[in-house]
Amino acid sequence: MFGFLFKRADRNAPKSAPQRVVAPQDALRAEARQVSDQARQQALQQAQALPDEAAAVAFILQSTFADARLCAAQQVQSSAALEQVLQACRNTDRRVAKLMQGRLDSGRQQQLIADKAAASVAQALRLQQEPQLMPNQVAELDRGWDAREVPADLLQQFTQLRAVLADRLSAQADLQRSAIGALNSVRALHSQAKATTVNASQLEQELDALESQMAVCAGHAEALSLPRHLAVEFAQEAQTLRKLLSNLQQHQAALQARNDALANWEAATEALNPDTLKASWSALPKLPAALLDDGLEQRYQALLKQHTVAPVKPQKIHAPAASAEATEATGTTERPQIAEALDGLEKALEDGALQVAMDFDKVLRAIDFKLHKPSATQNTRLAQARGELTRLQGWARWGGNVSREELTKAAQELPQQELAPAELAKKIGSLRARWKSLDGNSGPAPKILWEGFDAACTNAYAPVAAHFQQQAEQRQANQANARTLIDEVLQYAQAMLPTEVAPDWKAVAQYCQQKQQAWKNLGAINRSEKKALDNSFSAAIDTLLAPLAQQQDIEIARREKLITEAAQLPANQRDTAERVKELQQRWQEQAKALPLPRQQEQELWLRFRGACDAIFAQRKEAASSADAERRDNLHLREEQCALLEAALDRPDAELPKILQQAQQEWARSGQVPRAVQAQIDARFQAAIGALQARLDQSRQQVALAQADALRDKLILCQQVEASIAQTDTGSAVTRAESDWRDSWQALPKLAPTFEKVIAARFERALQNSDNYAATLERQRPALQQELLRAEILAGIESPAELSRERLQLQVEVLQASLKAGASARNIEQQLLHICDLPALMDAPTLQRLLKLVTQAKP
Fold first, then answer.
1. Cα-to-chain-centroid distance, residue 690
2. What span, in angstroms and rounded, lies between the C-alpha atoms of 764 and 537?
3. Is residue 704 scored above 80 in pLDDT?
4. Which of 27-31, 689-693, 800-804 has the lowest mean pLDDT?
């Protein structure tokens, strides 16, 4: 029965004879393993001691130990060596092949980044050399630049070039502001010269200063960025103003003669003959249309009318009774005027309107109190009003002097502020205008204050006057440079054109462009000489531009012929490529011989290049590789994450829409590289979480604000209802309905559902109709019951004395919820029902209700 045990023992018994045979084999294996380990350690030591990359490559190619090859592979860095090792180990050593392939991919990626960065640096260099830099060009440069993993030298070079471009853009902005300011200033001077009688020489100095400012703008290195209409409009405005000032200076004597004649005629005491007046007025020197003053003409017409109408002699009145009646009638009309003026004076003094009060006082003083005596009451009121008026005038005079001292102090501080001349002149003019306005409101200023203020303004204006003088000197220098430039153009034209040999048209075109640019950069010139100099320069440069334009027309015809030849070349012939290269070479030679205007050159070159591209058109490569698409998706997701992180500063109302759109766009975007999948997902989830946390916080704050508003309105309703109950028993002081409504209006609005219910309860309490006090008393038990039910729904503890009732009601609430299912009343609906249940509440009940509102947060 137990025989199988013995068989098993026999089977597992040791066999001594075979063991004695195997033991020598194990020893041989151990010895071989030891030798192999020693060889491996020696190979590793040799790999670690390799001197250079070439030795490492040779070692990898002949070594039989994988660990030694991997150790030696750490020294392989060059592209050729990496390719050689990769080809040798592709099928023999996976670790070394993977290392070599990774370094090759990393090198290619770094090379691509370096090439892209070098292209951006080259583009920045081209933009730096552009004579007219556009902001959109710099924006395009910034969009194409990616600073990640860029070599340090290229990064430093691009940063320096970008700083230079930023300085140029800033200089362009400042230049445009300066030119626009000069244009606005010359327009203001023009309006000032036409509107008032001013000092023509002073206006001419200011105009010279503005022309110098515009000349500086035109001579700026970034003058090409200025809009062309600015210079044209400024020149037109300045020319018109200078002509007006010239006419004003020439006819100043005529204008003064007309003023003197009118003053003498107006001062004459005897009647003047109208015909003599007309003849004398016509004999005066004529004025130009720009200087015709409507005021002079009106004075003349009034004077002529005065001496033309015959005076009527007064007739004696022999009816004393009629005079008495007229006096009585006049008295009855004057007395209401006295009362009306006195009422207006008192009302103006009460409101503090000093100027209005002084006007009413003038009206009262113009009434003859001897003929129309005021009553005793009116005399008393008038004396009191005039005393108050005197007091207010004293205060106004004191306040005006204080304001004048402040203006003097401000004028004295202007030299220390180091303002620009234009801004300094504007501030001085503003101070003087405010001083003048004080004279009308607070009376004339003391002489010592005026002298101090005038001296401070004069001292502050000294740098402005010096600046204007410097600009006038600069205009004179620019005028001399303009004449020199015209002479140079004429001499060059005489030297180049009348020759038997064809002139170097390229040099002529470059010379014309340089001189035109130099003319634009001359700066401001006196307006009286500007037009003549412009005409002279145009005539001089036209002597070169006219033959140059003819030669350019010939060159355009040659280019058109090249375009036609390129378009007619057959694309299937063998020599087509050589013929296209020949046409391109001819095009370059012609372009070097005579450059065309930039727009025409660009248009013709695009047509020629399109014809050549049509011949050599090939299919573009298929869709981009998966790696490129994944990198694009990565950039897109990084932009989405950046937008979400920046959305933390957006208004709370926009956050739900931003979250929804971000999640939709994230779901639509494709896959990204696996190495950064977890990182970009974590960043996205962190940004979503931050926005969601802020949105939850905002909603929590709104809920807390709504709860506070509901508590305040419930307290107000309880106060109104308590006052109704106390008024019914006669134990409280009533409060006006308007006060209750004012308190209600001061509270913020609730959600529409709660606002409608609580407002209706408040209105019912204010109306207090149909024995409302009894209703409040009757509904006390119902309120206690509903409040207990709400505490059960909200999970809030109830008073200890209501524990038994709470237990019973809790069972009822549970049964009702099981029967009603989803339609059972929730805590918010229960709270809304309590708000719609007016009832008297003691202090503990009110505290329970307010605690319920705080916990529920409707």
1. 28
2. 92
3. no
4. 27-31
Longest dimension (CA), the chain: 181
Distance (Å, rounded) from C-alpha 203 to C-alpha 424?
17
User: Which residue in this structure is represented by tokens 């090759």?
Assistant: 104
Q: Virtual CA dihedral for 47, 48, 51, 57, nearest 10 degrees?
A: 30
478-491 pLDDT tens trace: 888 888 888 888 88
pLDDT over 50 at 57, yes or no: yes
Per-residue model confidence (pLDDT) at position 519: 85
Query: By CB neighbour count within 10 A (0-12 exposed, 13-18 middle, 19+ buried), where does 80 fall?
Result: exposed
The Cα 217–Cα 211 span in angstroms is 10
Do 261 and 296 contact (CB within 8 A), yes or no?
A: no
pLDDT digits (tens, 9 = 90+) for 77-111: 888 888 888 888 887 788 888 888 888 888 888 88
Average pLDDT over residues 448-459: 83
Per-residue burial over 665-688, b if 16 or more Cβ lie within 10 Å, else e, is ebeeeeebeeeeeeebeebbeebb
Lowest mean pLDDT among 75-89, 258-272, 676-690, 738-752: 258-272
Q: Give the span between the Cα atoms of 666 and 660, in whole angstroms.
A: 10
Tokens of 273: 């003959």
- What residues contact residue 415 under an 8 Å CB cut-off, 6+ apart? 459, 460, 463
- Residue 399's CB is within 10 A of a number of other CB atoms, namely 13
Return d(Cα 278, Cα 297) in angstroms, integer. Answer: 12
CB 290 within 8 A of CB 244: yes
Beta-carbon contacts of residue 643 (< 8 Å; ≥ 6 apart) = 662
Confidence of residue 441 (pLDDT cuts 50, 70, 90): low
Q: Is the pTM of this model over 0.70?
A: no
Q: Report which of 130, 144, 233 is spatially closest to residue 172, judged by C-alpha positions.
A: 130
Q: What is the pLDDT of residue 824?
A: 58
Residue 766 half-sphere exposure toward CB, CA atoms < 13 A: 16
Q: How far apart are CA 593 and CA 708, in angstroms?
A: 85
Least Cα distance to 776 among 734, 739, 732, 723 occurs for 723
**What is the tens place of the pLDDT at every residue in 7-42?**
444 444 444 434 433 344 566 566 667 777 788 888
First-to-last alpha carbon distance for the chain, in angstroms, is: 87
Q: Would you state the pLDDT for residue 734?
A: 55
CA-nearest of 130, 232, 125 to 598 is 130
**Rounded CA gap, 179 and 212, in Å?**
11
Name residue 727's amino acid. T
Q: Give dist(CA 354, CA 459) in Å, integer.
A: 35
717 half-sphere exposure, CB direction, 13 A CA radius: 28
Please write the tens of the pLDDT for every residue from 721-766: 788 877 655 444 356 777 788 788 778 777 787 778 777 778 888 8
Question: How buried is residue 482: exposed, middle or buried, by Cβ count under 10 Å (0-12/13-18/19+)?
Answer: buried
Which helix H or strand E contains 4, and what residues bound it?
helix 3-12
Instruction: Say which residue the tokens 């409504």 belong to.
Output: 741
Q: What is the DSSP string of 675-735?
A: GGHHHHHHHHHHHHHHHHHHHHHHHHHHHHHHHHHHHHHHHHHHHHHHHHHHHHHT-S---
What is the token pair recorded at 612?
């050549």
Tokens representing 775 are 């209703």
How many separate helices (H) and strands (E) can be counted in the chain?
32, 0
CB burial of 536-559 (b: ≥16 within 10 Å; e: otherwise) equals: bbeebbebbbebbeeebeebbeeb
CB atoms within 10 A of CB 363: 15
Q: What is the pLDDT of residue 571?
A: 73
Integer Cα distance of 684 and 162 in angstroms: 32
> Which residue type, as a one-letter code, is found at position 318?
H
What's the CA gap between 218 and 214, in Å, rounded?
Answer: 6
